[in-house]
Design goal:
single chain; 106 residues; 9 strands; globular; mainly beta; 4-stranded antiparallel sheet
Length: 106
């Protein structure tokens, strides 16, 4: 299984290897990003940091849509239609959030 432990320096962007396009930085994190998940259409990106913070961003612009404390996450996945995000914690708790109802953070 590949490791996602590397970090982009604050203020730096990284590249999308599939499209060869530069993507925007996704904000500041207090700890390393441990997991990522893209929605099926590729428009949304969920990140989980090691401190248990889940962030959902617009994958193209990097704009944060929502930020959710969830604890120690074992797995994160979008529903096939991209309307929901499910996070399973290491203690077996399942969190499901309605992404479609979220308003972008300002």
């Amino acid at each position: 299984m590949p490791s996602f432990g590397s970090r982009t320096e604050p203020g730096r962007s990284s590249g999308n290897t599939a499209t060869r396009k530069e993507v925007k930085p996704l904000g500041n994190y207090q700890t390393q990003v441990a997991q990522v998940a893209f929605s099926a259409d590729g428009k949304l990106l969920a990140t989980v940091s090691r401190d248990g913070l889940v962030k959902v961003c617009n994958a193209q612009t990097g704009q944060e849509i929502m930020s959710l404390p969830a604890g120690k996450i074992a797995h994160v996945v979008f529903s096939p239609d991209g309307r929901y995000l499910a996070c399973l914690t290491q203690d077996g708790t399942l969190h499901v959030w309605n992404i479609a109802a979220a308003q972008p953070k300002r």
